[in-house]
């Protein structure tokens, strides 16, 4: 009985016609009370629109801006196991960015190209797969042992010629990575032009310790020299057997081989196997010049062979480059 009474009372409270007419405020309150769910839905929709605007408008814009304003520095590139269709690539690089939120990149592909002339489309010559990355103020993108196909031979030849011949060059890198901010995923455009130091035509080669062999080696080598090949760049380049023609001015002396050459950043000490023409190796002027100080020797690259194969993108630019003046006994 007690419970029934209570129920009755509460029903009477809300809807009895005997109660005095409600004031304006009370009517509004009642209206709100009945329609509260409409206001809740409107509120939720507004919140949702705001969140969607942030997710699909503001966060991507912020992310795109911070991706665009980030910097990419290439600390080292190693190009090894060269062939005419592919090579092995390793790269160390550092990214500086100001990420306002914690984010990560899904695995992406870097397309690399030489910055094209005004109004021309870039021609990517290699694709490089990059694993997933956690975005931090400073983070590294290191790639090792990437089998890399040459996608465009002419474009890659141009790049290689710049790497070998220039003091400085520019490399374009672009991708369209997916960025993940929590559970939110979207794509951004990534495009950077990176400045790199080149090998500067191997300028400054020094030769030492010219030793004439009384008995030539089976391969015909009749003089051995020590060489220092400077590489001012951060490229490591596996060249293979490098053959050069040598001359004193216009006097052609013969040719030389550096076997199994890999140029590392910095000075590279190598053995040089010289095939001096038989009539010259006995020439007194030549013999005395091998011990004289500061003799200029003109070197013209003739061929590069790795794994029994002429590597066109190394051989042609080296061959077409101006001769290198090496100094014997500097
Ligand atoms: C990258 O850095 C590592 C560690 O310092 C080093 O061993 C490696 O030779 C570098 N690779 C290149 C391509 O510079
Ligand atoms: C990545 O490369 C940087 C040089 O850019 C080097 O200092 C670092 O040790 C490398 N990290 C790994 C894991 O090889
Ligand atoms: C290189 O990567 C780009 C971007 O991912 C892709 O569109 C293109 O097909 C790739 N090219 C090759 C030859 O794999
Ligand atoms: C020249 O030969 C000497 C004696 O064998 C050696 O110590 C020196 O390192 C050689 N020079 C070069 C540049 O290799
Ligand atoms: C050797 O070559 C340098 C430039 O590479 C030149 O300045 C110098 O005069 C040349 N020396 C001789 C003896 O020709
Ligand atoms: C240099 O190249 C020419 C062809 O351009 C070739 O006939 C000659 O044998 C080459 N010399 C050497 C030592 O490879």
Automatic annotation (TrEMBL):
Q: Which intervals of the chain are annotated as region Disordered?
A: 1-26
Q: Which residues cross the membrane?
A: 36-59
Q: Is RNA-binding given among the entry's keywords?
A: no
Query: What does the UniProt keyword field contain?
Result: Membrane, Transmembrane, Transmembrane helix
Basic and acidic residues compositional bias, start-end: 1-10
GO-annotated cellular components: fungal-type vacuole membrane
Q: What is this protein called?
A: Uncharacterized protein
